[in-house]
Design goal:
Blueprint: E1 3-10, H1 13-43, H2 51-56, H3 58-64, H4 74-96, E2 114-117, E3 124-127, E4 134-139, E5 143-148, E6 156-165, E7 168-176, E8 189-194, E9 198-202, E10 207-209, H5 213-216, H6 218-229, H7 240-274, E11 277-281, H8 285-288, E12 295-296, E13 304-305, H9 309-322, H10 324-338, E14 341-345, E15 374-376, E16 383-385, H11 386-405
Parallel strand pairs: 8-11, 11-14
Antiparallel strand pairs: 1-5, 1-7, 2-6, 3-4, 4-5, 6-7, 8-9, 9-10, 12-13, 15-16
């Protein structure tokens, strides 16, 4: 298996300056390579420059700029050029698909927050022992930086990345050949129905409340964003107060993100420990959170009809705050490591079908859903909690998948 480990770095003041300079130099390399591609295509008869062409120039660039480019690992600079090449590959793929993609942009120093070293031992060295809680990583041009290793690293370290989040620095280790740690069998199967009122409801009737981390911090976040918006555009990036206001907004978002990750990891671990097989709806979160298309008023020029965009925006915010996609990804990773099975099933009509798993008739109708919380079948009269009905139908469909596989 492949796994990633993320640890907090504890650099000294001098090391922090070196890490910031490392990001700045790689950002400059990224922007310079992007400018070269743009100029070659616009002014040289639409000549396309690729990764190989730019990588071949790195030796000369390092010799011309020894203080900014020559001090860093050659392989990390190649990784930055691959990062740009990946952006162009994705751009052209979307163009061919008939979509309207954005052209790759220049990166400001505040938006270039990570550097990847593709091979352990080339510009970096992961120095650790199994029993140390404090270990160190050696980074070329920075030195031996202390790492708060809160868990054991398993498998073989392939790539090492340094990432900045606001004023914190993190180390990300990408490992392969990570051994599985199977849990003892429990003999139970469960289906879960994701929601916004409740985070999820399982087929046993249990509910996990939606913590609504963004909603709880909405007032504080709005105040911070309002303060940030008061700065005139001409003073931005030059004022110390503006930078402090921007950091305040970033700190609040980081706190919400950490709370959401912590909640999702704990709930996923509880499910994996308690059940052998877990069924869930196959959700298209990106499609569910799209804004409705504007509807033109044919009777009035330049006017539009009401399309429910305001109400949909509130629902979209609740779905994104719940973080269904993040949770289901974490659940799949933990299940793989523990030797459990996760089965995504078709999400259509799970909340409108009378559940056969609990003696229902299987009738499907929109009228079955009386309210957001109440399900009442118009065929057989079965009354139940709507979320519980959805979880029972998910369990039934996961069972059909198991029977087909057997």
């Amino acid at each position: 298996m492949k796994r990633a480990y993320k640890f907090l770095l504890r650099p000294t003041v001098r090391q922090e300056r070196a890490l910031s300079q490392k990001l700045a130099d790689h950002c400059s390399l990224y922007n310079g390579a992007l400018q070269e591609r743009r100029d070659a295509y616009r002014h040289a008869s639409k000549v396309s420059i690729g990764y190989r062409d730019q990588s071949a120039q790195m030796k000369e660039i390092r010799a011309v700029y020894p203080e900014h480019q020559g001090r860093w690992s050659f392989s990390s600079q190649q990784a930055t050029l691959r990062r740009l090449d990946k952006a162009f590959t994705a751009f052209f793929r979307r163009v061919k698909a008939g979509q309207t993609p954005g052209y790759p942009r220049f990166k400001g120093i505040g938006r270039f927050d990570s550097v990847t070293l593709p091979k352990d031992g080339d510009g970096c060295r992961w120095d650790s022992t199994p029993h140390d809680t404090q270990t160190r990583v050696r980074l070329q041009g920075v030195g031996h930086v202390r790492v708060h290793r809160h868990r054991t690293v398993r498998g073989r370290v392939r790539t090492i990345s340094v990432k900045r989040e606001n004023r914190r620095w993190f180390l990300v280790l990408a490992c392969d050949d990570v051994p599985a740690e199977p849990l003892p069998a429990t003999g139970t199967v469960v289906g879960i129905d994701m929601g916004t009122t409740r985070f999820f409801t399982d087929s046993g009737g249990g509910h996990v409340e939606n913590p609504r981390f963004l909603g709880k911090m909405a007032r504080e976040l709005a105040d911070a964003q309002r303060l940030l918006a008061t700065f005139p555009r001409r003073t931005r990036r030059r004022s110390k107060a503006h930078r402090a206001a921007a950091r305040k907004v970033a700190t609040i978002h980081a706190k919400i993100r950490r709370q959401r990750h912590d909640h999702h990891h704990k709930q996923a671990l509880a499910l994996v420990r308690a059940h052998d097989v877990i069924g869930h709806e196959k959700l298209n979160t990106a499609g569910m959170t799209k804004s409705p298309r504007p509807q033109r008023d044919t009777e009035r020029a330049g006017a539009f009809l009401p399309n429910g965009a305001a109400a949909k925006a509130g629902l979209n915010r609740s779905i994104l705050d719940a973080g269904w996609g993040l949770f289901l990804g974490i659940l799949a990773d933990k299940a793989e490591s523990a030797g459990r099975r996760v089965i995504p099933v078709d999400a259509r009509n799970t909340s409108l079908t009378c559940p056969p798993a609990s003696g229902g008739c299987g009738h499907i109708a929109e009228e079955n859903r009386v309210t957001q919380a109440i399900f009442q079948c118009v065929g057989c009269g079965l009354t139940a909690n709507a979320d519980h009905v959805g979880a029972l139908n998910v369990l039934h469909r996961a069972g059909l998948v198991l029977c087909t596989a057997a």
